[in-house]
Prior knowledge:
The protein is of the alpha/beta class. It has nine helices and twelve strands. The strands form three sheets. Strands 2-1-3-9-5-10-8-7 form an eight-stranded mixed β-sheet, with helices on both faces. Strands 4-11 form a two-stranded antiparallel sheet. A hairpin with a 2-residue loop joins β7 and β8.
Amino acid sequence: MHIFYINLDTQPERRARLERQLADLGLAATRIRATTPADISPDRLARYCPGPAPWWLTAPELACTHSHVDALRRIAEGPAPFGMVLEDDAVLAQALPGFLAAFAALAPPVDIVKLDGFGERVLVPRDPPMAIGGAALRRIVSFRPGTTGYVVSKAAAARLLGQPRLLAAPIDATLYYPFLSTLRDMRVRHVEPALCTQRIGPHGDSSVEGPRNAARRARKLHRTWRDTLLRTLHQRGLQLHDGLCVLGGARRLRSTLASDLVARLADPA
């Protein structure tokens, strides 16, 4: 399985930190130069980041999606049936190599596997999970944010690249949003416990979250009645979807991290 990681030219320390983790785990990976807003044409920025509206993208969000699209393209054009994508602020679990080896040997019938988690409460279906390499693969039944790490099949990557609105949403919405028609017949799973997570807190340095939070404040200032109605319908629709899943037997559980991730998160190195 080919591993790709996304890294900004302006973040050499994050590159070094992730490469050190990969080397310690015996994993090889290819760097993808992360796209920046300066790399995107003014016409494309105007199209996908038009300004105040219910869900307009910030320029860094669009650039982030571009970077993941580059990774998906390499997986779709590569020879391996699966590929893995990491962001450069990932903290990796010691169990990750064993899981990847078991996954590659089994080649399970799945399209996307979310590897990251944050200890958040998640909606879990009642059907039994698939066990691979000491981890459980559970079906994703509600939106799970974050694209710190995931495995995607060659076929799924090609299909995602063919979506006309691929750049119109943050990449985590494209991969894990239950209302997206692309995902309705894709087999999307998440790993429990999580095998990687994002470095957050005092040692985190996300290039997307700051502009995203500023954009949220701007949306509130410029929100029209139409925007408020659309946002409310979106939120209530997701709540209704989750409620129907609960009626069908799903339940909310606190997600867990692989045992060594908590200690490694506390280490700034």
